[in-house]
Structures are given as C-alpha cells and as structure tokens.
Amino acid sequence: xxxxxxxxxxxxxxxxxxxxxxxxxxxxxxxxxxxxxxxxxxxxxxxxxxxxxxxxxxxxxxxxxxxxxxxxxxxxxxxxxxxxxxxxxxxxxxxxxxxxxxxxxxxxxxxxxxxxxxxxxxxxxxxxxxxxxxxxxxxxxxxxxxxxxxxxxxxxxxxxxxxxxxxxxxxxxxxxxxxxxxxxxxxxxxxxxxxxxxxxxxxxxxxxxxxxxxxxxxxxxxxxxxxxxxxxxxxxxxxxxxxxxxxxxxxxxxxxxxxxxxxxxxxxxxxxxxxxxxxxxxxxxxxxxxxxxxxxxxxxxxxxxxxxxxxxxxxxxxxxxxxxxxxxxxxxxxxxxxxxxxxxxxxxxxxxxxxxxxxxxxxxxxxxxxxxxxxxxxxxxxxxxxxxxxxxxxxxxxxxxxxxxxxxxxxxxxxxxxxxxxxxxxxxxxxxxxxxxxxxxxxxxxxxxxxxxxxxxxxxxxxxxxxxxxxxxxxxxxxxxxxxxxx
Length: 487
Fold this sequence. Notes:
Elements: E1 4-12, E2 22-24, E3 27-29, H1 32-45, E4 49-53, H2 62-66, H3 70-79, E5 83-85, H4 95-104, E6 109-110, E7 115-116, E8 127-132, E9 135-142, E10 157-158, H5 163-177, E11 184-189, H6 193-202, E12 211-213, E13 225-227, E14 230-233, E15 241-250, E16 255-265, H7 275-292, E17 295-298, E18 303-304, H8 313-326, E19 330-334, E20 342-343, E21 346-348, H9 349-355, E22 362-368, H10 369-379, E23 393-395, E24 399-404, E25 409-415, E26 418-419, E27 425-431, H11 432-436, H12 438-442, H13 446-450, E28 456-459, H14 462-472, E29 484-486
Parallel strand pairs: 1-4, 4-5, 5-6, 9-11, 11-12, 12-14, 19-27, 24-29
Antiparallel strand pairs: 1-15, 2-3, 7-10, 8-9, 13-14, 15-16, 17-21, 18-20, 19-23, 22-27, 22-28, 24-25, 25-26
Helix pairs in contact: 3-7, 5-6, 8-14
C-alpha cells in the first residue's frame, strides 16, 4: 500500500440550528445552505474527505424547538456528515427522544460514555472506524458529566465524571482496536477547549491519538494547539465558519506526516448554495412563521446580551420580569439561557422563543445572607473568566454587588441599598436546570438550603411568565448596568 496518503477533515461544532445566512455588507455569511455547498465542493475537489460534527446540532432556532430536533436531523441528513458526536444540547428533549432521533439520522452518532447505571450498557456506539482509500480512521466520541448536566434529569443514566475517566476510556478503546492497524485516531469531543487540552495531556502516546476535534466552549482559534504531540482544534459556533485539516498520513507509522489547518469563512464568495436544502429549510420556516410570527411587545430600543460573563441588558430584563411576576426577592437567571446577542425593538414570539429557548420551571429556594454571598463568590471564581465555560448568572434589581477579582472579596454586597447581613434571608428563584446543578453553579447543596425552608415550584413555565409580562407591558427598557461591578 502507498505509504503517504492525503486526507481532508472538515469539522463543525455547536451549530445550534444556525440554518439561515446573514448579510454583511456586500457579502452573505453562513447558513446551512452554503455550509452544505462548501462541504459538497470539497468532496468533489479532494479524493479523501471526512466531515465531522463535534456536538450540539440542536437548539437556537424555533424550527428546531418546534419539531424537537426532527427538522434538524432532516437538514443534517441533507448535508450528510460522516461522523457526529453527542453534545450537551442533544439531550435537551430527553434521552429517550435522542435515541429516537438517532434512528432518524442517516449518519453515525458516537459517544463512548453515556450508559445505563444498572448494567453499564452504552446508549451509543462508542467509536466508528471509517475506511477510506485503504486507510482506517478511528473516531471516538467523548463528553463529560460537567458538560452533560441535563443527564441529571435521567436518574438511570450515567456519564464520565471528568477528563481523567474519559482518558481511561479512550485508552481502553485504543488498546482494543490498535491491533487492527488503525492508521489515524481522532477524538471527537464536546467538553470545551481548555478541557480538550487537559485531556490531551493525559493520553498515553502509545494509544496513538493524533487529533482532538472539540466543541462546547465556542472557541474560535487561529491555529491548533499542540499538546502531548496531539493537534487540538475547535471551530467557533454556528455555520459562519468551518474548520479544515489537509493532512498527509504516514500509514506505516500510523501518524501525521504533514498537516495544514485553517478556519474558513462560509460566505457567498467561496461557498455555493445548496438550493434543495434551502427548499427543505423554507418548508419548515413557513410552518413556524404562521404559528409564531405575531408581535409580543415593543421595546423602547434594541436590548443586548453581548457576553454571558457580565451583566447585560437582556439579562437584567428577564431576571426582573421573573422576580416581579413571581414575588421573589431575587432571581438568579442563567446567562446561558439567553442564546442571542440582541432583541427588539419589535419582539415577535418567534424571536422570543429563539433567544430564550429553555422553558424550565422556576424553583424557589431560601438562602441566608451568608449563603447568598458564598453562592455569588463561587459564581465569580477565576475559572469563570478564563474560558472554562462555567455557569454565570444575571441578577435581578435590588442586588448591588462589587467584587475585586484580585483580592477575591466583595467591596459592597447590598440589597435594596443596605449591606447584606449574614443572618438575612432571601427567597431566590432558579430555573430547574440550575436548581438541579446547584452545586456546580453555586457551590452549595439543596440540603443546605432546605434547612432554611422547603423548596417550592412557583411556575412550570418561565417562558410563559416572560411572554405574558411582555404582552401586558409595552416600551420596556433597562436604564443602567450597575448590579454587578467586577474590578
């Protein structure tokens, strides 16, 4: 067999239902049609091409939500990826539904570590060997418990706890299948870029892992990180860009001989349209437009959410609506619940559902002033600002927090203009997801909070509350951003 062979790996991650292109001056950027067009173009130009997706095809678009992922699977069937791994949002509609969606997919979905706790039976095939031009390319799918927090809704389902356990599982798979002369090994992960680098460091070189293609942290890089002689990459989020490896593989040594990588823009200059796919997407869009096109409210101006790790206008607005409507002292709203960067001034139901797609119940917990300070300080730990994709929260009005990152201490911690005392008590609202993952988000247990008062469910649909409030209140605005000041 010829020793040196070319292989092109295209990769996306965190597509999040980003089906439609956008105009940027004279250029059209992104969209599933042009993404599909580019993948098809490369498949025609190059001999050996694999297109991989590193998790989170779902969420972010009303079409995905309305059809609970079935529409997304049909759209992805048209693009025809060669391999896909499970991300955290693949479980948003429930694991049973995900297993149904897998049956609808005409492409393989791999994951090495979602399993039934009682007998350790895996839910998915852990790996896929793709044979192409005489080469055997091994793909292994990885996600960890820290990412897959939704699995806590499914009491019988377990996951890897951390990257150390993930590394051990990778080793077991590689040890088992290296004997059949694997030419190249790729980990397809959804754990975040920083965790990918930690995972690469833990892998034994004898296992033969060559590349880690990741997702989850939405990291847009200029060049691959090389850790433990393993290339680590990620391609931002959505369909605005795609990662591309042009590799020469040494099939005798089973490793990378040469490589080039770049993150390419999906645009009207270099990516043809897939008109058949556009027709499919528009057929779904027509149905959702009829149902969700009505106007809910009008803001005074456009409100924004530019960064999940800071106080934002939309974060303040949503937190205040839930606090006022439900009679809470404080609402701590998950920043990641807000999925787009701007909304308004005219707000349709479709736009509201796309920017706030998670329709959780609201749980009320009772915390002392001392516990509340601990919770906020845990949220503001260094990892939140260092790309580790930790949870972050938007504060409702009444709270005023000044925090010194260097000293790791509060300057002011006030409620309604008064310094919070350790003995004070507060009724705090949390979305179900964040209630179930309260130890990760706030460093406190439900048991500790239940010593103050019993937990109550105040609303089964937070989005119903927001929609009703907006429908009844026009010309909403946010005056100042002064609730959370980080120095």
